[in-house]
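INFO  loader      accepted 1 record
INFO  loader      residues=388
INFO  predictor   begin
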Amino acid sequence: MAQANPKPGLRPANPQFSSGPCAKRPGWTLEALSGAFLGRSHRAKEPKARIEEVITLSKSVLGMPEGWRLGIVPASDTGAVEMALWSMLGPRGVDVLVWESFSGEWATDITTQLKLPDVRQIKAPYGELPDLSQVDGKRDLVFVWNGTTSGVRLPNADFIPDDREGLAICDATSAAFAMDLPWDKLDVVTWSWQKVLGGEAAHGMLALSPRAVERLESFDSGRPLPKIFRLTKGGKLIEGIFKGDTINTPSLLCVEDAIDGLRWAESVGGLKGLIARSEGNLAAISRWIDGGAGYGFLASRPEIRSCTSICLLVTAPWFKALPEGDQATAAKKIAALLEKEGVALDAASYRDAPPGLRLWGGATVETANIEALLPWLDWALAEVAAGY
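INFO  predictor   done
INFO  writer      dumping tokens
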């Protein structure tokens, strides 16, 4: 008779490990939004002050340099990235770093939608980084800081020349507030509220360096832009966007939630505290894997492993012996078991990534919940293995 596989005794207090939208801050309830100016115009004095507070607090927590502009824009991080691509690219050749699905999407937009003639895609497979030495400072550069679907992050920005002539456009949506961004190496930085601070979706953040503003005011692509993409008027930056005059109507409920997340960030030590919480989650998983778990990291090297979107492969011999299609099925079964037991929701790997699991380790996730989950990963692996 086969020996029973006992379930672990401890369950995570919060099973939400989704990589977007992500877990709310510890202790969050709907009461946190009770001060929202619902039913008010976003241009009225009090609501606009709340919008301005999101901008001010975000700059403060992130340590954004003087002279940078920060605005709230439509359509989440995707909208912020697309605004930058459609408004700024064209006068120089473009290098695109591609190592997971979203960076691949930006490369597709640049080549097949914008149809720019001089585009180099510098690629790497899931789990790796591209050859960063190929980056040319005379060209514009588009890249993600953290591969949300691969669990691979940049360890630094040393590959970006200090004397670059092109713009460095960085999609930092799963890195901002969890990783230390080198602002002096960047010109455009984008993120959304729904990642590290656990905010509600649909709003993006667009940060511009003085060099990015100069590009906007000196370059006219001639291409038509819809209203929600327009950052200039009459050849000048629309400064109001970066002072709380949003392009379209924001949700004041979401604005209130963003403020709540930012105030919580200040309460846990600001950026340093947020980074420490995220790195602590990665460290807990690293210790477990080093202890002989039947899992490993998709990211090949420790220095490029993400502390937010932590992507795991199944390394158990029985799993590796399966045909590729059966591996994908087995990985989905593991994720389904975890969800059925209510210990990890939305933990399956991204649809285009190698089969495995993806656990969000951003600052709103408590390390104690990560540690409570890990025995369940062992249990689910054993349960699925028994069927093969």
